[in-house]
Specification:
With 295 residues, the chain is α/β, with parallel strands linked by helices. The protein has eleven helices and 15 strands. It has two domains: 71 residues, Arc Repressor Mutant, subunit A (Orthogonal Bundle); 186 residues, Rossmann fold (3-Layer(aba) Sandwich), CATH 3.40.50.1360.
Length: 295
């Protein structure tokens, strides 16, 4: 079939074809290229607004919302009203150092402070459970030197961090690998968790609300966190101040389900009153920390 000039133009502009096959007319950038640039931006800043992206890429807000939704489905970010946030435990293919301990981790000083404080609740000889995430990884980085410790984790970065410690036994829960977080979760990990008992469990969250509790990104992750909490004598929620007032897809625990909340600070003083009586709050001032834990 032969198309007229106008028919050919309409064919190329068809919304089903203008994906990765044809570059955007305004900047000549393919969809995958633009999404990669968006990932690079959000790695540096921790968050991004659609208005910023519109100005930078010269494409419509609809196009950019689709980009952000695609990246959110892949687990790289969390959609917010008007933009997106870097997912707490996300890493990017070939760029693990950027997300796990590199200078581009959002709120890194706060996470390091929480990591140092958390080990004050850990003693040599204990069995502990570490969730996945950049804040949890900072706890693992402060465990070097402990003796007779057993660490159960669903996080490959945590396991790698502790792999050189002769006095620490590391057990990976097993399950399906999530590329965005390098966590292994699912029914296989649940079966393993049914047969263990730990003194401490340290659990991360994507957000916390006084009304709905703690949030994560999907139901499988939520069930994994609940099962981790169920096998622990004491449960610690570890979140930096940026997570307060943030919600996500799946609430996995109420405030009172945890024994302790470890955070760098509480931005709104009224939250302290709302949380009082439900959970013990431990604030970790990143500029005034003493000690690295009881060993």
């Amino acid at each position: 079939m032969v198309y007229s000039r106008n028919q050919s133009k309409d064919f190329v502009n068809n919304r089903y074809l203008r994906s990765s096959v044809y570059p955007d007319r305004k900047n000549g950038m393919f969809t995958e290229e633009r999404q990669q640039k968006i990932l690079e931006l959000i790695q540096r800043t921790g968050k991004i607004r659609i208005s910023q992206l519109t100005e930078q890429f010269g494409v419509s807000e609809v196009t950019l919302r689709n980009d952000l939704s695609t990246l959110a489905r892949k687990g790289y970010l969390t959609r917010t009203h008007g933009g997106a946030l870097l997912q707490e435990n996300s890493i990017f293919p070939g760029k693990a150092r950027l997300s796990f301990g590199g200078k581009d981790v959002p709120n890194l000083a706060a996470k390091r402070a929480i990591g140092r404080k958390a080990v004050e609740y850990i003693e040599s000889g204990m069995n502990i459970l570490l969730d996945a995430g950049t804040t949890i990884l900072e706890i693992a980085r402060n465990l070097h030197g402990f003796r007779g410790l057993t660490v159960i984790t669903d996080s490959i970065p945590v396991a790698v961090e502790l792999s050189g410690e002769q006095e620490i036994t590391v057990l990976l829960t097993g399950g399906v690998l999530r590329p965005a977080s390098l966590a292994v979760i699912g029914p296989e990990s649940w079966s393993m968790l049914e047969n263990i008992h730990v003194q401490r469990a340290f659990i991360g969250a994507r957000g916390i609300s006084t009304e709905r509790g703690f949030f994560c990104g999907n139901s499988v992750e939520g069930e994994t966190k609940r099962r981790m909490m169920a096998v622990a004598e004491e449960k610690f929620a570890v979140v930096d101040a940026s997570k307060f007032g943030v919600s996500s897809l799946v609430p996995f625990a109420d405030i009172g389900d945890f024994d302790y909340l470890l955070t760098d600070r509480i931005k709104d003083s009224s939250l302290t009153g709302e949380l009082a009586g439900k959970i013990e709050i431990v604030t970790c001032n990143s500029s005034k920390l003493t000690g690295t834990g009881a060993k």
